[in-house]
Hints:
The structure holds 2 protein chains of 2 kinds. Chain A is α/β, with parallel strands linked by helices. Chain A folds into 2 domains: 14-323, Aldolase class I (TIM Barrel, Alpha-Beta Barrel); 335-410, Alpha-Beta Plaits, CATH 3.30.70.20. In chain A, 28% of the residues lie in helices and 20% in strands. Chain A contains 12 helices and 20 strands. Chain A has an 8-stranded parallel barrel, surrounded by 7 helices. A 4-stranded antiparallel sheet of chain A has the order 5-6-14-11, with no helix packed on it. Chain A is globular, with a radius of gyration of 24 Å. The N and C termini of chain A lie far apart (63 Å). Chain B is an alpha/beta fold. Chain B has 3 domains: 34-128, Fumarate Reductase Iron-sulfur Protein, Chain B, domain 2 (Orthogonal Bundle), CATH 1.10.1060.10; 145-240 and 391-460, FAD/NAD(P)-binding domain, CATH 3.50.50.60; 242-385, FAD/NAD(P)-binding domain. Chain B has helices at residues 18-22, 34-43, 51-55, 62-70, 74-84, 88-94, 101-104, 118-128, 153-164, 181-184, 195-204, 223-229, 263-272, 292-304, 324-332, 393-396, 436-460, and strands spanning 145-149, 168-173, 209-213, 232-235, 241-242, 260-262, 284-288, 308-312, 336-338, 341-348, 354-365, 368-379, 382-385, 389-390, 404-405, 408-409, 422-424. A 5-stranded parallel sheet of chain B has the order 3-2-1-4-17, sandwiched between helices. Chain B has a 5-stranded parallel sheet with strand order 6-13-7-8-9. In chain B, helix 4 crosses helix 8 (118-128) and helix 5 (74-84) packs across helix 8. The interface between A and B is medium-sized, with 16 and 16 residues.
Amino acid sequence: xxxxxxxxxxxxxxxxxxxxxxxxxxxxxxxxxxxxxxxxxxxxxxxxxxxxxxxxxxxxxxxxxxxxxxxxxxxxxxxxxxxxxxxxxxxxxxxxxxxxxxxxxxxxxxxxxxxxxxxxxxxxxxxxxxxxxxxxxxxxxxxxxxxxxxxxxxxxxxxxxxxxxxxxxxxxxxxxxxxxxxxxxxxxxxxxxxxxxxxxxxxxxxxxxxxxxxxxxxxxxxxxxxxxxxxxxxxxxxxxxxxxxxxxxxxxxxxxxxxxxxxxxxxxxxxxxxxxxxxxxxxxxxxxxxxxxxxxxxxxxxxxxxxxxxxxxxxxxxxxxxxxxxxxxxxxxxxxxxxxxxxxxxxxxxxxxxxxxxxxxxxxxxxxxxxxxxxxxxxxxxxxxxxxxxxxxxxxxxxxxxxxxxxxxxxxxxxxxxxxxxxxxxxxxxxx
Amino acid sequence: xxxxxxxxxxxxxxxxxxxxxxxxxxxxxxxxxxxxxxxxxxxxxxxxxxxxxxxxxxxxxxxxxxxxxxxxxxxxxxxxxxxxxxxxxxxxxxxxxxxxxxxxxxxxxxxxxxxxxxxxxxxxxxxxxxxxxxxxxxxxxxxxxxxxxxxxxxxxxxxxxxxxxxxxxxxxxxxxxxxxxxxxxxxxxxxxxxxxxxxxxxxxxxxxxxxxxxxxxxxxxxxxxxxxxxxxxxxxxxxxxxxxxxxxxxxxxxxxxxxxxxxxxxxxxxxxxxxxxxxxxxxxxxxxxxxxxxxxxxxxxxxxxxxxxxxxxxxxxxxxxxxxxxxxxxxxxxxxxxxxxxxxxxxxxxxxxxxxxxxxxxxxxxxxxxxxxxxxxxxxxxxxxxxxxxxxxxxxxxxxxxxxxxxxxxxxxxxxxxxxxxxxxxxxxxxxxxxxxxxxxxxxxxxxxxxxxxxxxxxxx
Lengths: 432, 461
């Protein structure tokens, strides 16, 4: 318990869908939360809560050997992570006993149990009281596991069908008093539909995203994808830093959907540090779940997460998470509402420029030919923005290796806000 | 070659065996490991119109070969290098990268002050290439035959490029082995494990190149014969003689003063020996000069076990031709660098052997070097001169009519001398700057010019 950060000016504790937690950092339902040994180590490290790895009906499934693969960056940093594991491969009884024991030893932590049983009422009716008897704080419905289980009519197959989501959620609310979090799969077209269905079924919250169907790499010597099982492979579930942008968009979609406004959201997907967590919270998440970062670095990362988030909040004057939760949501809108009169232009700080020429060639080859390459008599180069050509696309700023060297400077146009709906250049404008 | 040092003790005296001495001459900069190379390759920003390419005398597309390393395409990286510089392996080891590609790396900028280690990455690519056949196939034989005088970096580079165009090449080399300064003139710890020879073996795999050894212009070789028997002649002569101090006590040319010799002669012996313990050791050693050869000499004598090694230069540190990196190597090896001291007299003992040097203290007044009136004496039993090299006039006598420029051979923008059909490059021409990489470039460009001229002749005919 010593690892839970306490500061006089910031309180990281939350109450999410009725579940109390000393901080917003939970471990997602996954290998790190598969048994008491791991979960207790996580609590010792300072995690505010865990979602116990998904329980199912006995007999427990059997996993294959070789289970994970990664999408590596050039420096072997893991950009994305992929797994073909199933739900817990231990017996229901063992898991329930351990959950009970752990909850007794760690009463201040949030302990949520992930469940996936066949899509029949009897199955849910049978398991829910047993889970509730452990003393757990809530349940999470795993309707989004993208591999292995759908073939048995569970997981993503349910998560891809809003009617089934609503049905299963309703059974849970009927047969359990625990808060129900519905975990959503991203392997669908419009994330708002399953979220609305969960709310209709009585869900107390949604959590997202589950993993994305993926093949991370091919072993070109053996012509087989990774992870390799014998001479074969299969698609797995993609997670880790690379999926964060996809997850944040889906969180924002639900946060700003009038149909689900106010529905608590637990953000999942590539959360690797406090900064990522703060971004999910800014988009409306009330808590975050972490998996890949912990699997790559161990549980200790939560220390930096707590400390970093608390310091940043203190600097900003936020005392509690709710002080900034959802603050970026009103600024997230549809393209058609963006201001057509806004103009920004790149500016290169010549003192910081190292003359690598990346901005020049990026703009010249692939964008708007808005950067001039000037060479003086001594051969020294200088790159300058041709302001009248610059459309403010950000490409030069993105490719520049020196952070802060290229800035995008908003231009004073003197014109009022005008959306595409109002733009006279829009033949379908609503005001026409 | 070290006869004038016969009176000195040997490096092996006092129980130091060849193996323990050899340990002092291992790779100065150990190669990158595979992992280090990948990490370092990631640091390259893949600049557009990259400054490092501009700084490379041999025009290697550096960002491209580094990207190829990072993409696990080692043969691609090696070919990118070798396309422009067939001696890219030795250049990676001996180039003063700190004043060439790495100096111009944009990562030297204030925020980082650490260039990409281009030299070591280049070495990595070449060391790990694994071609099943020579990467530069020879074009169909043109029936033309070119003579190349000198099997140093310029001559070898020229020969390889000519061979790739399908011309037949015969190299005439005075020494018993090819390589020139790479073989005989580079500090032992910069090119280890007989690398120069291995590299040349690879180069010659292209075919169509023959080397005749023991062929010396002015001795058993003359230009008229070369021109008669070949369609063109390339002169990669190098600089055959060491400049003399011109001081009292130096003895007449050709007469050795015990204890005094050119640094290049000693370095050559050091490169060639199989047993370092047999080398004469100047316990108190003075090296005169301030270029990289002077540093190579001083550091190697220190590593052989000298008690005191002093490098003396007539001007200040800032004017030293040796790069800052080389100066650091010297200091790290305990070499004392004395500046503002001009050689005045070689001090001899009763038997006529070197006992030390007297120097006149100097100063710079409005850029002009002048004596201060003070003198400095340094006791020494070996004095080594490294004050530059010059064309060997005895050899040039075999090439009548060769125009000169600043004491070296004059060439035009296409490495043509003033004699028809005769080309030149490397240290022997006026453009030469005592850089292996530049000699390679000269040889390459001269070969292009020879090829074009020969092809133009063919069209006319």
